[in-house]
Amino acid sequence: MPVITHHHHNSATQQQNTAPKENTFPCSYARGSTPPARSLFKTILTITVGDEKRPFLVHRELFCAISPFFAAALNPAYSFRESNASTLALPCARPCDFEYLVQWIYTRTLTHEEVAGPHPAYFRLIRLWILADELQVEGCKNAIVDFMAKTADESNSVPTPDDTRTVFGDEGSVRDGCGLRGLVVDLFAWKKTDHLVEGHEDSWDETFLRLLVARLKRAVWTEKTRHPPWKSLNERCRLYHEHNDQSTCGDSEKKK
């Protein structure tokens, strides 16, 4: 988990003039039902990121509603913060990754100049997934695996050896058994990557290769499985997504 530090206004005048009000703390949203969208853009919060403390001005209510991490970090009941705290620090996060996360939170898009084109920089998406996992932004993680699958198909590409070390090695923070790991293995198992894996000048992560061999030994190409699993929304959700509330993407599609 990222290390956070807190800053708040401790002016005596402010404390005297700030009377407590019932149910005014915006992060109570995370403990109950989803608030209406119109109520998510009221209070500006400054989040400083990285050693350089790059500031990001975001909406406190929105970040509390979308992330249990922010809901807890900004809740005085859990973090011993003042209710009027206006700054949160994430010193261990990379500013470029957090900027990408902010893009997704506000626009629900993952377009990026380094991911577009015939040679996508998958590490951008992988590092964003790691950050979203640390900050408990579930929707962003699921969007990333969908976008990676789509990008891999459109560019006919797969992650690099360095990417596999980030996803499966000690240098990354990707949890064992998560959907992102499953997707990367499936991309290599289903796409024609034998010459790439065999002849690449850089070394592949050992854990990744072991899982890839195991996946191939399970005979992905069977009568019951004629298409890559990421092509189906239901299979993509079952294998690669994470839903804390036990719902599935298929359930949400049926409601439409």
Spans with pLDDT under 50 lasting ≥5 residues? 8-32
Q: What is the β-strand count? A: 4
Mean pLDDT: 83
Sheet with most strands: 4 strands, mixed
Radius of gyration from the alpha-carbon trace, in angstroms: 21 Å
| Overall 3D form | globular
Task: Provide the β-strand percentage band.
Answer: 5-15%
In spatial order, strands of the major sheet run 1-4-2-3
Order of helices and strands: EHEEHHHEHHHHHHHHH
Q: Termini separation (Å)?
A: 36 Å
Number of helices: 13
Structural class: alpha+beta
- Helix content, binned percent: 40-55%
In oligomeric terms, what are we looking at?
single chain
List keywords for this structure.
alpha+beta; four-stranded mixed β-sheet
Report on this structure:
The protein is of the alpha+beta class and about 260 residues long. Helices cover about 45% and strands about 5% of the residues. It contains 13 helices and four strands. It has a four-stranded mixed sheet. Strand 2 (about 45-50) and strand 3 form a beta hairpin. Helix 9 (about 180-190) crosses helix 11. The protein starts with a strand and ends with a helix. Mean pLDDT is about 85; it is low at about 10-30.
